[in-house]
Each structure stands twice: as C-alpha cells, then as structure tokens.
Amino acid sequence: MAQPNIPLLGQSLIAAGQELILVPNLPMFNIQQQLVQIQQQQLVQTQILQQLGQQLQQQGQQLQQQGQQLQQLDQQLQQLDQRLQQLDQRLQQLQNSQDTFQALFSIRLKNATSSVNAALMYPPGIPLPNDRPIFKHNLYDLTVAACLSTAQALGLPPLPGHALVLARRQQIIDYLGAAITAV
C-alpha cells in the first residue's frame, strides 16, 4: 500500500491556508451604492408616474370640456332643427295660403264678371249649408241666419253680435268677389 507523502501534503495545506486568508479580501459588491441607484430609479419612475397622472388628469378635463362643448353644439343643433321645422311649417302654410289665394282669386274673378243671375262659385271641398246663396242675386236676400251659416262654412271671422244684416251680407259678397254692394 502506498504511503502518503507528508511533506507534499503539508505544502498543500499551507498553500490552501494562504488562499483561505485571501477569502475575506474578496471584492464585495457595494450594496449601499446599488440601493441608492435603485432608490434613484424609483424616484425617477415615481416622477414619471406623477407626470403621467397629471397628463391624464389634464386630458380628462379636456375631454370633459369637449363633452360639454359637444352637448352645447347638440343643443344648438336641436334648436336649429326645431327652427328649420318651424320654417318648413311656415313655408307649407304660405304655400297653402298661396294655393288658397290662387283658387279663391279664380272664384272671385268668375263671380265678379258674372251676371246677377249667374250661379255663384264657391271654393271646392267646403261643405256648404242649404240656405247659402245659389245665385248672385240671392246675396241681396240673405237673412242673418243664412249669413251666419254661410260665413261659418266659408271660415270667415265672426262679426260682432250686433252687426247689421247688411254688414254680414257684405262680408260674404266681398269674400266671394261678387262685385256688388249689399242693400
């Protein structure tokens, strides 16, 4: 059996001991410097997050203002739409008035140029009472009751309750364009 080489073993142990002495002198990481760097990075990140938060808050306020502006614009558009509808209705009324005037003008022209014995023309589509004047000369003989029913059927404004039959006859004569004077 082989014997250990004691002098070699001794030298190896001395060399190992010398190396062990060097172990406490190993380069240590500077933990404090690393902690400071980490804290600085965290501080920078916190500042960035705060800036982002402020930017988000500003953008939120801007969005809120824009939303309010959009609501105002929507209200203005609704008002414009209502105004346009009113204008459309008024235009339709004017068109209807013009159509009515043209139809009434033809009737008035016909009644004005016809003889006293000619049949009176009335606007179409109006339900007329039975006691209405049929001929132009019947306008002279209208009673108060006949004047009231005919005027109402023609859509004429009511005269004061104490109006004379002559005023009531003349209202119908003028409306129909009969070109005579009530007597």
Distance between the termini: 168 Å
Tell me the number of strands. 0
Helix content: 55-70%
What is the approximate shape? rod-shaped
- Along the chain, the helix and strand elements come as HHHH
Main sheet characteristics: none
Low-pLDDT sequence parts: none
Strand content: under 5%
Number of helices: 4
Radius of gyration: 55 Å
Which SSEs are present, and which pair or pack?
Blueprint: H1 6-22, H2 31-113, H3 144-154, H4 165-176
Question: What would you say this structure looks like, in words?
Answer:
It is a single chain. By secondary structure, the chain is mostly helical. It is 67% helix and 0% strand. The protein is built from four helices and no strands. The chain has helices at 6-22, 31-113, 144-154, 165-176. Helix 3 (144-154) runs parallel beside helix 4. The protein is rod-shaped.
Structural key phrases:
rod-shaped; 4 helices; single chain; mainly alpha
Describe the structure in brief.
The protein is 67% helix and 0% strand. By secondary structure, it is mostly helical. It is rod-shaped, with a radius of gyration of 55 Å.
